[in-house]
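Note on ligand handling. Small-molecule inputs were canonicalized before submission; formal charges were left as drawn, and no protonation-state enumeration was performed. Where a ligand contained multiple stereocentres, the stereochemistry in the source SMILES was retained. For adenosine-5'-triphosphate, this procedure yielded the string shown in the input block below.
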Amino acid sequence: MEVRKARVSLAGRLILDDIEFALRPGEFCGLIGSNGSGKTTLLRTILGFVSPESGRVMLGGGKRAAIGYVPQKFALDPLMPLRARDLVELGLDGARFGIPLPSRARRAKVDAMLQAVEADSFADQRIGRLSGGQQQRVLIAHALIRRPRLLLLDEPLANLDIRSVAGIVALLRRLSREFQTAVLLSAHDMNPLLSAMDRIVYLAHGRAATGSTQAVVRTEVLSRLYGFRIDVIRVHGRILVVAADPAGEALATLGGDPASVVQIP
Ligand SMILES: Nc1ncnc2c1ncn2[C@@H]1O[C@H](COP(=O)(O)OP(=O)(O)OP(=O)(O)O)[C@@H](O)[C@H]1O
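Structure output:
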């Protein structure tokens, strides 16, 4: 997948400009940015729900059907009579028309996918009754069952406890390699992804800095991206991105919210 010089406006407002990066099969990429930085808009552009006003998104094989998508968290009603395995099976049908697979073959595919995401022990429970981490596993299985070449996930780690976060990141890291699926995962905190990311796309001010974490998450690079002085501080294996002068005028251009550029554990 390749995003080339994409420029995206919504309702006449420029949201993303000059975004450029590529993902190869099996690569794990973090799409990092504070709230409102345009992560969802970029994912929706890749999916084809939003058209860039200039630039383009190129997909290997040219097929949007080859993209798996886990949307931002939505509430699943505990009373909804849908089991985890039913949701995974629904992923089989996607854009497929014509004669469905025989039921035994469907069942085998669903079982294999549930196993791959380690969800077999709760496969027959209602989806709305599962924990956040378990639901994410099921949504990932739903998105991966047709073996897409690219998997997009919008803030899949939000509202999960630390152990579930680590489990989901490790799972996605493993599956991206096993299935040779490129993974693009959006998050406002890069820290849980540091050991997994091959590449980072860091969004701020509608622009992106991309490359390895080492190359991108540096004081000079992020200061240039934000347009004012940013300090990147590494402490206890974590990275904090801090506005050097939170009271500075430059922050007004970011929406005036110092918290939006400070990543606190
Ligand atoms: N349909 C729309 N029309 C106009 N502006 C929009 C629309 N959708 C989003 N925006 C604006 O675009 C900007 C980027 O939003 P987006 O949802 O892509 O950010 P995000 O990084 O995913 O943030 P969050 O983590 O809060 O969802 C925001 O300022 C938002 O208000």
